[in-house]
Design brief:
The longest helix is centred in the C-terminal third of the chain and has 21 residues. A hairpin with a 2-residue loop joins strand 2 and strand 3. The chain has one domain. 29% of the residues lie in helices and 25% in strands. It is an alpha+beta fold and 109 residues long. It has a 3-stranded antiparallel β-sheet. A two-stranded antiparallel sheet has the order 1-6.
Length: 109
Amino acid sequence: MWDSPRNGRRDLIFAFDRGIWILAILRGEFMKLGDKGKKLIQDFEQFRAKLYDTDGAGHCTVGWGHLVHRGLCDGRENEKQFAKGISKSRGDELFFLDVEHATCMHEAI
C-alpha cells in the first residue's frame, strides 16, 4: 500500500484530516502513497457525483470524499460549482489534488 523510498518497508498507516486521507510519517520516514493505496482509499470512499454530507462527520463532500466545506451541505457559495454533480473524471482530478495537498503538507513538516 505504501512505498518507502528509503528502505522498502511496507507499513500501512492512514490518517484522516479535513475530510481527506493523509500520507503517514512513520518513525521519522516519509511514506509515499502508492497506486494500491490510492485504489484502497477510492474503494473505501466510493465515488459520489452529487454533494453529500453523510460522510460520518457531517461535512459537505463530493466525489471520492473531497471536502467542500465543514458542516452540512446548505447552499453555500463554494457548493455551487458542484450543484449539478460532477463527472468521475472531475472526481479523479479532485482526489489527486487532495493527495497532492496532503503530500505537500507532510513534506513541509
